[in-house]
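User: I'm new to structure prediction. If I give you an amino acid sequence, what do you actually give back? Let's try with this one:
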Amino acid sequence: MKVKSLYVFLLLASFSINAQKAITPSETLKIEGKIKAEKTFTINDLDAYPKVAIPDQTLHNQKGEVKNTVKNMKGVLLKTILEDIKFDYDKPKELNEFYFVFVATDGYKVVFSWNEIYNSESGNNFYIVTEMEGKNIKDMDQRILFISATDLKPGRRYIKALEKIEVKRLE
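Assistant: Good question. You get back a string of structure tokens that encode the predicted 3D arrangement of the chain. For your 171 residues, that looks like this:
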């Protein structure tokens, strides 16, 4: 009986260890894919942009339960960061086929369409967070954060340790 209990304990402990895996902080944000030239932003580059206040956000888990509230944020509008990115297309209507995959250092991914970013009110509320709860981006645990400030449940698109945005096109 003791062997069985030990086995169950070790099994549960291994699940717990895996669930507590730390996220590696992101130090740069790379934009790549269907664009004319890749671009990499450092933390200092992102911090140099003009910042705007972002409303406090209540984050929910997948069950809709309150997980956390992030407060006192400032950030850069995503469209501002993407301003100098030249997309690789022949005709403007082809942009309807573009989508963006946001990737965190732990492999977490969120997808946005070109129209969602550039042709909707939601896109006017997508931010790279550069300050939060009194900490500058250089001092934040996961460094580069993304938040959608008008989502009903922003926890699903609150991306910690964002390291890459892949620009893709439907085939």
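You can read the tokens as a compact description of the fold. Here is one thing that stands out. Residues 2-19 form the longest helix (18 residues).
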